[in-house]
Amino acid sequence: MPQARQAPVDGPRKGQPVPHQPQHRTLTDAVRSGVEQHPDRAAFVYLHEDGPGLRPEKLSYAELDRRARVVATRLRQAAKGDIGRPVLLLHPPTLDFVTAFLGCFYAGRTAIPAPLPDEPGERLARVGTILRDANVGAVLTLPGYRQAVGAWLTAAGAPDVVCLATGADTEGATDADPDLWVPPAVRDTDVAFLQYSSGSTSEPKGVMVTHANLAANEEAIRAAMRTPPGVVAGSWLPLYHDMGLIGMTLQPLWVGGTSVQMSPISFIKQPHRWLRMIHDYRVEGTASPDFGYELCVRRVTEEQTAGLDLSCLRVALNGAEPVRAGTLRAFVRRFAGQGLRPEVLLPSYGLAENTLLVSSGDTESPHLELQVDAHSLERDELRPARSDRASRTLVSCGRPADTEVLIVDPVSLRELTAGRVGEIWLRGPSVAAGYWNRPGPTAEAFAATTAEGRGGCFRTGDLGALLDGELYVTGRIKEMLIQHGRNLYPQDIEQAVQDSAEAFRRGGGAVFAVSDPAEDRSHVVVVQELRAGAGAGAGAVDGDLPRLAASVQALLSRTFQLAAVSVVLVRPGVIRKTTSGKTQRTLMRQLFLDGALPVLHRRLQRPVADLLPGTDPAADPAAAPARDTVAPRG
Fold it and tell me: Where do the AMP-dependent synthetase/ligase domain residues begin and end (predicted)?
């Protein structure tokens, strides 16, 4: 089986983005073109859960266009006040979301994809924040949710917001005649939709994606993925997340293809359904964060792969969280017998502020891996690995598409040479117009200028390096751990912990630093989930958890020279994630300091324990049945 390519660490060559001329000016133009050329072709197929199986619901280009015109007409008829106010979409992940989203384009209104606030807690709070931040003028939802959404709007202090039910059950309304639709006058610079950031390090902000941004990035995706006309794409990603929306839903529409969808819950419950979708519909392109591939390797059985043929797959993007070389290798190894080719897996880098895609791997070659010296990486340099020292494996996220990538020292603002790690800055037609109603953060992030005078750059807050034109993403500035002059990446520590014992859940860790004012220094904390049944139940052996915590401390002392690490062991599901699967380390740090984590066992350094509301296990029922272990100060 072909192996991943090993990247050289010599001979740097700065890659230049290739401009592409959009074949459509707007998404509406793309869909209307599809209606003219192949009205009966399936634009979307949605797989509903139906007992143990999945039941398909199809939507042709002609029907998609008709339903979008109905939504646009209803929006126009029901509009109150300023039609410039955005429209919030609150739908379950079905075809009704797609028609509502496209209906906003047909109406010339700015759409906001968002998760349905059908449960209390973080999701409800997040959508409430979006409602207030965006000054929403209308909400679209399904008839079955309209009453509850209306009550929520009233409780949220927004009774003036129009709440419209869309979907097949509403098309008998007098204002639902698709022939009443009038194409809106839309400028390239108009905001097509607001993509609210995942909020992995701060509260969500509405990224203003213009029609020109969307056209540029869809063309960049088409060129980078070599997307053929009429492509079939398939995904389980949330439709309100940029990778699921722009990459897996809108890209097929852009080229007159078909998008096959299932809900994230369907995938999480039975990961083999994703692979079966690829087989059944001869899917050519798909995407997932790293954890999706890892989940398939771990949970898909031999019985479930019987008769499975994945040879149709051309592109399987891996992005939205750190891409792990081990996951890529394991996925290729596990499903090679089903016709999966190594070059299909494409590590990528993207973010909402660049509409979506920044860079991706080569569709005709296996992914590129780089073995670097760990000590040099801690000092922001990519140097060849040495046999006598620790090394790290980095995965290339490929070459930039239509976006110019600069690597800049975040303090001096000087551009760095190839092989040096700095902040990733972006320039190009896919870079969004800024944050909605936030002139300060927009000026700070979207109008940066290097010390050499290159302006109009977006500061991503991500760290990385360019080498031989390839982009290597190493972490985030806000999450970097600075210990004794060394820069440590939390994801490297998390992976080392999870690789060290079967009891630790993959992807279920968060590493961060807390400050000790008394000593003017920071201390590293590891929060790690246990696998279900691995010491997390009532029958756990009393000595297992302290032993596991001590093993983590010994590992990190030996591997990373971290002599005083605090370890917190928790049940599965405690680690908070964004909608794309990114670990919310900043949030986890705050929950830890607030004493809000449901702890199974803590092994804390005394300075860290002193920062918490209480460390007495008798006063901390969440810590039962295990005991706290607190090291003495000094």
Answer: 35-436
